[in-house]
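User: Fold this; tokens only.

Assistant: Input:
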Amino acid sequence: MNVMRTGMLLAFMTALFMGVGFLIGGTGGMMIALVIAAGMNLFSYWNSDKMVLNMHHAVEVDENNAPEYYGIVRDLAERAGLPMPKVFLIQNDQPNAFATGRNPQNAAVAASAGLLQRLSPQEVAAVMAHELAHVENRDTLTMTITATLAGAISMLGNFAMFFGGNRENNNPLGFIGVLVAMIVAPFAAMIVQMAISRTREYAADRRGAEICGNPLWLASALNKIARGAQAIVNEDAERNPASAPLFIINPLSGRGADNLFSTHPSTENRIAALEAMVEEFRQMPPARAPQAPLDDEPREDRPTPWGRDGASRKGPWA
């Protein structure tokens, strides 16, 4: 079902891209847009992870130079039944994280230095579990390709403003068609991108809480990340706003609400949903109960010198 929804989404975005091409250049413009859309889909499929990681200057780490961080991801991947993803560190003071990759076998997760410095091990585990949930649900490919096509549709709308459409073709819409290409199509692409992002964030929050074992850890992490994102500017994200929906919290402002124009759900609503899961977890049969104690608050009783203290195989959050 998830594959079918993804296919339908990409087909819609491609059709919208072709429609903009038709409004600008008639049949010829539509065919050119089709070729461009197909090329962008293929390029994004094979290179989406590299594109996003390069945008944010992420550096790959391993158990030698970041043992605690790497160990947390490794243990979570084992609990989720996922292949071990590549692990990256973003040298950015804003606390945030994202996942990327075309499938679970070619996935990567990335956390910022600010996140590792400001969050407890349990909170970091909850955040990375959320990102692994995106990997498990194959959200990363869908959101990256959608962001690519949405940006391209907006670019075509700008072309329409400069070129004014092809007056030599048989397009009966004329100036109205150009206005649609300039305004309506980019707006529609933006709405689709935002709606997809919000829906998938709620699903990843739930699955992430299941993977790490305690929804309160993720609730606490989201609160800290949202406050940090409001206070600290992420310059790389500002230069590449199309990548914003990939992050666990909007890196552009850290604010937002569940409305038509938000790329992320309201942090308050996400926290409330996670807190509501606590009673649900308590009522689970013992065989399905989470491994982490639900009353355990994220520990702040020791420093977290990520990559220096050689975390154990079980992880400091277990």
